[in-house]
Amino acid sequence: MTLDSFLKFGVVAIYFAGLFVIAYYASKRVKDIKDFYVGGKTLNYWIVAFSSRATGESGWLLLGLTGMGFAVGAHALWVLMGEMLGVVACWVFLTQRFKALTDRYESITIPDYLESRVSDTSHGIRIVSAIVLVVFVTAYLSAQLAATGKAFETFLGLPNLWGIMVGLIIILAYTVAGGFIAVAWSDFLQGGMMVAGLTLLPIVAIVHIGGFTPLFEGLSAQDPGLLSPWGTDGFGIKSVLSAVGLATVGIGYLGSPQLSVRFMALRDIKEIRQGSVVAALFTLFADGGAVFTGMCGRVIFKTLTDQETVLPMLVNELMPAILVGLFIAVVLAAIMSTADSLLILASSAVVRDVYQKILHPEASDKSLTEMSRLVTCILMGLALVFALKGGTLVFWFVLFGWAGITSVFCPAIVLSLFWKGLTRQGVLAGMITGFVVTIVWNSAPIGWWTAIIPGFKGWLAAHGFAEAKSLSNVLYEIFPAVVASTAATIAVSLKTPNPENAAVDLDAIHSEVIDVWR
């Protein structure tokens, strides 16, 4: 083994050791299922803000978004704009209401909250939630494992399978041992690494290129569209739909369960104001740095066989071995910060929302915690199967899972915080609609639509979509799925009886919400 390889492996080993130390101390604090799933609701705003942002970004930030910056240049900044709007709107308008209501109901999962909010005694919301989370979390999680394999292969020259298996073992170990506490503490560490790495790398790359002027000249020489917000196709229907699709990624921050559960874990509603500033700055530096990293890579390398390897390629090109090791850890941190959170989320849906609340209400905390650890292992096994199939870009596989979770949960959660007329039937209708639209929009062959919509095939050809395989190649499925889910939720709620507790509960939290921003 060369000295460079030794340094790279050594830094990664230190990072893994840090995760095990966190897991050890966190495991000492896990006494019951509340500790395992929401950390006993004792976390400060730094931990919650970093954990929510690190979870919301995942491996797609360092591999997917940097790759998009490489491929389309400034057009990728629509993702930054959408995420900034989503994060700020969530913290300013939603988080305080959500925290107040979940504390009032003593909820520790999203289905807990929704069931209490609309008085669902049928457990329909819990069942649908569990099915949806297992399906989309498995897809999302498999993308994180695939990203781990890609990182090990590109940085260290190890087989893709080795990277996948190492990532799986490490994530499982600290998640199973320490539950949500280990996840949140490790997210804080990993989030800090992500922001630092994505701030440092583009600065080093721009200095290497010679400054901003050579950067922009280099991009323009390849294609002036790389400097346009409308991309290489110029302004038109195709570029506008693409921009809308990229910007609507931010919708997912308005109620996605894996993010919302962090707000449940916050120790004091009054810390939301400070947390909002931390979360916004995290997003600005991390997402902006990712896009500029890709753009710098385009100037330095011009072409790559796989655009999602631009960050590892830049690091290997510009950094000494010890910093390469640090960036390997940064990429793994981004992946693991989401994977661990998804595992906890899906595990809670199965164990808390189905096993405990429906099948075995009398189960002890000890047995539930053990069951949670077992289910966590099973879910990771399912994700491994899909990750090994490969062949899908991390960016788009993540976006599919993100769209599914967002369209099913966000409309119901947002409406539940403001509208007294939301009903159990409305929530179920919206969930099912979002689930179906996401899958059909993403997976149904484009030929189905051209066969039933007159003139649609010609429209696709005229606007640059002749090669589209599904509607998701025309417009990202999150937008139509969220619109359809919201419409179904409202329409059915208007036709069904309001829950008796809604007006009382929403009125009761008013003073708490106002006090946060005084």
Order of helices and strands: HHHHHHHHHHHHHHHHHHHHHH
Amino- and carboxy-terminal Cα gap: 60 Å
**CATH H level, superfamily name:** Sodium/glucose cotransporter
User: Which shape, going by the Cα principal axes?
Assistant: globular
* Total number of strands: 0
Q: State the share of residues found in helices, binned by percent.
A: over 70%
Estimated structural class = mainly alpha
Query: How large is the count of helical segments?
Result: 22
CATH-defined topology: Sodium/glucose cotransporter
The radius of gyration computed from the alpha-carbon positions, rounded to a whole number of angstroms, is 22 Å
Strand content: under 5%
